[in-house]
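fwd from M.: "can u put these together and see what the complex looks like"

so here's what she sent:
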Amino acid sequence: WLILLCPVQVSQPPWAEQPGQLLGAFDEKAYLAGKQLKPGDDPYRDHAFNLQESDRLGSERAIRDTRHYRCASLNYDTDLPSTSIIITFHNEARSTLLRTIKSVLMRSPPSLIQEIILIDDFSSDPEDCQLLSQIPKVRCLRNARREGLIRSRVRGANTASASILTFLDSHCEVNADWLQPMIQRVKEDHTRVVSPIIDVISLDNFAYLAASADLRGGFDWSLHFKWEQIPIEQKMARSDPTQAIRTPVIAGGIFVMDKSWFNHLGQYDTHMDIWGGENFELSFRVWMCGGSLEILPCSRVGHVFRKRHPYDFPEGNALTYIKNTRRAAEVWMDEFKQYYYSARPSAQGKAFGSIADRLTLRRKLNCKPFRWYMENVYPELRYGTQSELQSLSFMLNRLNHALCQSLVYWKYTVCLQIILEFVDNFYA
Ligand SMILES: [Mn+2]
């Protein structure tokens, strides 16, 4: 009778046996052949990653299960609610977009996927999205003009029919059991906003590399996101490597959130354009208005990190980032916004539009002051006089530069992540 109590261990979940059947009437070969790199074309030109490698990989490659081994034996509720997956994109490569979708269909329990909503943010070729809607559960919505990530996601959320929203970037590969841990945490407490550990897919050869499991999201006063080590006291207190990691901010590309909580908290600031800064605004808002942010080590999703944006910003990259972060600082950072302006003096004179609606929202939700966030969520973020700050950031930059010099063009965040992973493996 003991056998009855033990679940049978299967190496492949039953729904993954025939990936071909997941696609219904969709003609994968024709879709991929419809757009191909011409001989002599620079494979990096359009997407800032090696398109030739991505095309060559195929849409259902196996990837290493990068989780801690203890994750595989965790159990999740059998009645977890389903989720709407929301993927926004602008001129994404067909092979990466398809691999993102297929990895979701292959590595998620089918009952958890209510639908996959693609928001085509006015890509040059409407067929990139349209053709994919022949895949069962996939829906395609196309914007009539360029709206950017933030308004596109809000559009996706408004049309979603599941009670839980999963935001996913368009050049990802989800790993084994990525979804259950996140839905479980949100089901237990709907005010949690959770994200996976984001593994690295090489932009050159598309190798799938494990990221360190000891990182959380942080930032400096210029509102530049960075991965950082979990503070030592918290690390010492972690007896269980499968435990959730509290994080001051999320990277923003991939997370799961209860839909009614998303709506209650005011969705996103839809006056932010294209990309950038929205993750700070959401993170401050979630913490200060009664929720929490977590990274779940048993959920892993690979993402192609790039060194530049392959698409253009109608108003310029830097200006858009400043407008968006300035809105976040003005609405949420109270007297601490002075440190943002010291770190980014050029932001001072830039237009950022009206924030009256967002200030009303903050009052209506009765959110805590930014000082509370500093004291309770991110006490590690130092603040002081301008010269102190400058010499500190100078030292950190020098250190970072020395560490990452040999890895030429990787964003230092990615670089740091990989160095830390090596260290991890060394001691493992
Ligand atoms: Mn991305």
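replying to her w this: Residues 1-11, 422-428 have pLDDT under 50 and may be disordered.
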